């Protein structure tokens, strides 16, 4: 699943779970209803600021919008982070540094395979 599809799916899931209209969510995070509709419909992609506003509004971590679970999710998250940082004008070498740090942190957090007990 493409990363922006994951974001849109999460946006819709949270909105519907909270029984909110698109207009209500848009007003809560300072967007026009039309722009919010375009985000959920897929004709526009959300900015990092929009994702942060949504996360804050719903009380969920930003990562909630960036993952759909599994190892592929980490790659998708890195891809979205890269795109968002570049869109924000972050120099490419800084973007690569951020992604390297995130990858190292992910490796450090990964469970290590357990060795079979000695007999």
In short:
The chain has 119 residues and is mainly α. It has helices at residues 3-17, 22-29, 33-41, 48-58, 63-66, 71-87, 92-109.
The secondary-structure class comes to mainly alpha
First and last CA, distance: 44 Å
Biggest sheet features: none
Roughly how much helix do the residues carry, as a percent range? Answer: 55-70%
Number of helices: 7
The radius of gyration computed from the alpha-carbon positions, rounded to a whole number of angstroms, is 17 Å
Share of β-strand residues:
under 5%
Mean pLDDT value: 81
Low-confidence stretches: 111-116
Q: What sort of overall outline do the alpha carbons produce when their principal axes are compared?
A: globular
Number of strands: 0
Order of helices and strands: HHHHHHH
Report on the structure:
- Helices cover 69% and strands 0% of the residues.
- By secondary structure, the chain is mainly alpha-helical.
- The protein is globular and about 50 Å long.
Topology:
Blueprint lengths: L2 H15 L4 H8 L3 H9 L6 H11 L4 H4 L4 H17 L4 H18 L10
Features:
single chain, mainly alpha, 69% helix, globular, 0% strand, 119 residues, 7 helices
């Amino acid at each position: 699943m493409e990363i922006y599809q994951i974001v849109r799916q999460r946006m819709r899931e949270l909105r519907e779970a909270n029984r909110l209209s698109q207009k209500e969510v848009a007003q809560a995070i300072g967007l026009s209803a039309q722009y919010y509709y375009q985000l959920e419909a897929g004709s526009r992609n959300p900015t990092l600021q929009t994702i942060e506003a949504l996360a804050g509004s719903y009380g969920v971590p930003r990562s909630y919008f960036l993952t759909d679970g599994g190892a592929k999710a980490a790659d998708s998250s890195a891809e979205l982070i890269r795109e968002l940082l570049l869109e924000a004008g972050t120099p490419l070498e800084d973007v690569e540094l951020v992604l390297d740090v995130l990858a190292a942190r992910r490796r450090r957090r990964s469970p290590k395979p357990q060795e079979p007990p000695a007999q």
